[in-house]
Amino acid sequence: MTDVGRYKKKTILKHLYEKIKEDEITGLAAQLAYYFLLSIFPLLIFTITLLPYFPVTTQDIISMLEAYVPSESVKLLESSLSTVMENRNGGLLSFGILATIWSASNGINAIIRALNHAYDVEESRSFIVSRALALVLTVAMIIVVVISLLLPIFGKMILGIVFDFLGFEPSFMYTLLRWTISIAVTTFVFTMLYWLGPDVKLPIKWAWPGALFSSIGWALSSLAFSFYVNSFANFSSTYGSLGGLIVLMLWFYISGLVIIVGGEINAVLRHNRTIK
């Protein structure tokens, strides 16, 4: 029986539930977590080497991470940042570019495979085309991350000038600006990923529902997980010095789940629109 025949009489939520079970997204999320772990450190190297060219400090990066990442993992990443800063040299930028783009593109490539799984399609594009797409999406993601770092800084400067002139307290607006920019940027990134990633032709407007879910879901799940780890869990007592790494892997796993569910939502909605 075809996919249409199996699902045409079922509600969207029931269809989504069955698709999530059928596609075994927990295993796919574990793959994504592995690739994310391989990507994060080259990405940090590349970001650090760019700092002298932008009005961004290491603390700005740490502050952005602290909004989502549990404190144990932030300490691990901060330690890696400090090591990179101490050993920075002239050839690090070129290494960072190559290592980041290649390693992070493995993560994007895994997401593309997961999205094809959601749409029940096989990858028909050649290795060169699919890999080039992963590389382009990776570069775009890096650019968006840099922009997301810069916008709050310049926005804070502009708000500071305006509110000083008006005599208002800008602290609330700073927080609102940061979260608005964060949600907008991640929604844009996920929209591009869900639109271009799977090997199916989609109008871009069909990509945003899952992107919006993933953007908000990722922020909420990250905050909830961070609160749980910081308030109740003690991974260091169980895993010792590996506690921060284990927490980081769990956060990547949760992030992978959210990304895949967003793709599944778009696949189910597409099926619902095209069904006869």
TrEMBL record:
InterPro entries: Virul_fac_BrkB. It is a multi-pass membrane protein. GO terms for cellular component: plasma membrane. The chain crosses the membrane at residues 32-54, 92-112, 132-155, 175-196, 208-229, 241-269. It is found in: Cell membrane. Keywords: Cell membrane, Membrane, Transmembrane, Transmembrane helix. Its main location: membrane. It comes from the Bacteria. This is Ribonuclease.
